[in-house]
Write a structure and sequence with these properties.
This protein has nine helices and no strands. The protein is mainly alpha-helical and 297 residues long. It has one domain: Four Helix Bundle (Hemerythrin (Met), subunit A) (Up-down Bundle), CATH 1.20.120.1770. The protein is elongated. 21% of the residues are buried. The structure holds protoporphyrin IX containing FE. The site of protoporphyrin IX containing FE has 26 residues, from helix 3, helix 5, helix 6 and helix 7. This is Lysosomal membrane ascorbate-dependent ferrireductase CYB561A3. It catalyses: Fe(3+)(out) + L-ascorbate(in) = monodehydro-L-ascorbate radical(in) + Fe(2+)(out) + H(+). Its EC number is 7.2.1.3. It holds the Pfam family Cytochrom_B561.
């Protein structure tokens, strides 16, 4: 009896001991997983803010460069249907449809906004886009007035076709967004359906506005730097204005790439209710079978 008791005791003790060792190991692995998750979150946030600062700097440089170009080489600004009124066109289009629009598009990606009510940020997003729309419409008025004043035909170039389509699509997108996401009577099913279309259209409009700006800069340089008058050199002779405006184009491309990079990075997506679990660390301990597949990014 004493022998069998001893055997039973040592077997039970041995099992308890093994279980204790295993739970201790699992606990350590869980902590390690959590730590790694937090480190990933911190490095992802730091990387975001670094990219965001770069985006703000490039946006500011685009506005400064397009304004300086028109002040230094194109004679400045006026609103009198003259060449000087035309000069508002590039400034307002770059500021509105590229810089403001790009910043409005990445607003939900800023981690600082995630802990706050989405409704507030929806209003900020809509207000930024409305300012962008107003600036673009003013920019179009500037060029249409100038064309009318000088009896230049409207909408003859590829630039003007792409440009007008961009502004029409943007207006439609803004109105649909207002009805779909900000109107209290918009049904949830409709919002869910609209969201991916809205995000895709938003990117498409941004790409179209980048294309409009690049073709516009190119067209302006070809028209203005024809080398026929004494005051302007030919575009092909590398005058300072052409180099400066080409560099503006490069800045616009760089800004566009940074915005599109932010938009396409899934780790910088705002978490919607119910999606939290997909980025939290797995509470299951890592085993050889699941270690390779699970990443807490
Ligand atoms: C998203 C940005 C832009 C959009 C949507 C846009 C749109 C337009 C539209 C619709 C017209 C035709 C106006 C008319 O026919 O009366 C036009 C004309 C013009 N734009 Fe832009 N534009 C943009 C940016 C720029 C930029 C950055 C420049 C650089 C200087 C520029 C240069 C011109 C020039 C030279 C014309 C007159 C010749 C033409 O009709 O093609 N545009 N633009």
């Amino acid at each position: 009896r004493a022998g069998s008791f001893n055997l039973c005791f040592s077997v039970t003790w041995g099992l308890a001991d093994k279980t204790f060792v295993r739970t201790e190991k699992e606990g350590k692995e869980q902590n390690k997983g959590k730590e790694q998750f937090h480190q990933n979150m911190i490095s992802s946030t730091v990387l975001f803010y670094g990219t965001y600062v770069l985006c703000l700097c490039l946006g500011l440089l685009c506005v400064v460069f397009v304004s300086y170009w028109n002040i230094e080489w194109r004679g400045g600004f006026a609103w009198d249907a003259s060449f000087l009124q035309f000069n508002w066109h590039p400034v307002l289009m770059v500021t509105g449809l590229v810089v403001l629009y790009g910043n409005a598009a990445i607003l939900y990606r800023i981690p600082f906004t995630w802990s706050q009510r989405k409704q507030h940020w929806k209003l900020v997003h809509a207000a930024l886009l409305l300012s962008s729309l107003i600036l673009s419409i003013l920019g179009l008025c500037a060029v249409f007035d100038f064309h009318t004043g000088y009896h230049i035909p409207n909408l003859y170039s590829l630039h003007s076709w792409v440009g007008i389509c961009t502004v029409v699509l943007f207006t439609a997108q803004w109105l649909l967004g207002l009805v779909g996401f900000l109107s209290p009577c918009s049904p949830l099913g409709f919002r869910k359906l609209l969201k991916p279309v809205h995000a895709w259209m938003g990117m498409a409009i941004f790409i179209l506005s980048l294309a409009s700006c690049l073709s516009g800069i190119n067209e302006k340089l070809l028209l203005a730097l024809n080398g026929n008058s004494n005051s302007t050199a030919a575009y092909s002779s590398h005058p300072a204005e052409a180099l400066f405006a080409n560099f503006l184009g490069v800045l616009i491309v760089a800004f566009g790439l940074v915005v599109l990079g932010i938009l396409s990075n899934q780790r910088w997506n705002r978490l919607e209710p119910g999606e939290e679990s997909s980025r939290k660390p797995s509470l299951k301990p890592q085993t050889a079978s699941n270690a390779g597949g699970s990443t807490s990014t």
